Amino acid sequence: MYMTFKMKSIRLTVLMLLIASFFLLSVSAFANGQQDSAAPANGEKKVMKINAASMFDEVHPFTQTYYKFEELVNKYQDEVTIEVKYNLNKSLGIETDYFRFMSQGESVDLAILAPANIATRVPSIAIVDMPLLFKDYAHRNRVLASDLFKAIEEDVVKKANVRIIGYAGGASRSIISNYPITNMEDLQGFKLRVQGAPIWAKVFDAVGAVPSVIAYDEVYSAIQTGVIQGLENEKIGYAQMRFFEVAPHYTLNEHSITVRPLFMSEKAYNKFSPTVQAAIMKAGKEAGEFGAQVELELGQIELDKLVKSGLANVHPFSDADKAEFKARATPALLKYVEEAGFTELYNGIQAIK
After folding, report:
1. How far is it, in rounded angstroms, from Cα 21 to Cα 29?
2. Domain range for 219
3. At what angle do helices 61-75 and 274-308 cross, to 10 degrees?
4. CA distances to 32, 156, 159, 204, 325 from 277, in Å
5. Residue 220 burial (C-beta neighbours within 10 Å; 0-12, 13-18, 19+)
6. Is the whole-model pTM more than 0.70?
7. Is residue 326 part of a domain?
8. pLDDT tens-digit series, residues 243-257
9. Hey, what's the signal peptide range on this chain (predicted)?
10. Backbone angles phi, psi at 274, to 5 degrees
11. Do 337 and 343 meet the contact criterion of CB atoms below 8 Å apart?
12. Residue 169 in contact with residue 294, Cβ under 8 Å?
């Protein structure tokens, strides 16, 4: 009986050892499988996908900026292949939606936004795109090349969980209307849509217009139904949003030179190694500069096409009228700058030659 019991114990021990060995082999195989899925075989780079969003089509400068970013970010590092999925033509909503998605770390990883769209969450960014801020396009570029906006960039990460990786934009904004505006007198009582940051309404109220904050994708119908008589916008936006159909007059008062930050969600950014992050920042900077140049060139081409087709009328705004616009607007602008605590930064921007 003793021998029988002993033999059973030995067989049980052997069986348990076999089961343990099988379990360890299974765990090892699973771990190797997981490792293989993260790091493709044959020395291929891991593919990491990010989502870009835009209200516009594939021709728009914002989309061209995304294309350039994808090209450059894969040129400047060789750890991973970054693939960008392009969600265009408002397929994921409008700019306020993109900001919310990026801030929450879902659906959208990359987007170019007007600063006014995030000014409620990050008030300091409003100064980046104020009217009458830059002397000209070259001055804008010198300001962006400085470190004056560094504190704002840090504020954006801290308060909104998104990161500025470059700056697009660069076009002048002018007045779009359903009746001709050729001087300051014509501007009096003009009902127009303005961006959401408070400074825009303050400036246009100061020059005698009647500003209203309306969502960008509702502007067309608001003009059509008589709620407003126009808006202020860049040439490319005028063409792409087809505002010329309800407001065929474009007045070159050029009251603002735009800055359009290229944002990446912090969640997406933090998925990458420091080496890839450095490539993202370098590619974002250069892609933004590329997009700004595209916007300047393409905006003029699109406006010229509309004029040639008889769909739009371009009106000059004299230097005297531009000076009067600035003279009327400046007290309101400076008051806003002081109340918002931007005086030192504003003076620093104006001091750059």
Report:
1. 12
2. 46-351
3. 150
4. 28, 17, 20, 41, 43
5. middle
6. yes
7. yes
8. 999 999 999 999 999
9. 1-31
10. -55, -35
11. yes
12. no
Both structure tokens of 143? 């300001």
In a domain, 6, yes or no: no
pLDDT band at 44 (very low <50, low <70, confident <90, very high): confident
What proportion of the chain, given as a percentage, has pLDDT over 70? 88
Whether 154 maps to a domain, the answer reads: yes
CA distance 148 to 282: 18
In 3D space, the residue among 308, 189, 300, 312 whose CA is nearest the CA of residue 251 turns out to be 312
Per the structure block, which two tokens stand in for 151? 């504190």
Owner of token pair 């969450």? 121
SS3 sequence of 47-81: EEEEEEECCCCCCCHHHHHHHHHHHHHHHCCCCEE
pLDDT in tens, 13-40: 434 444 444 444 443 333 333 333 344 5
Contact 269, 163 (CB under 8 A): yes
Domain assignment present for residue 71? The answer is yes
Q: How many domains does the chain have?
A: 1
Amino acid in position 244: F
CA distance 56 to 269: 24
Largest CA distance in the chain: 117
Residue length, the chain? 353
Tell me the two tokens of residue 232. Answer: 């202020």
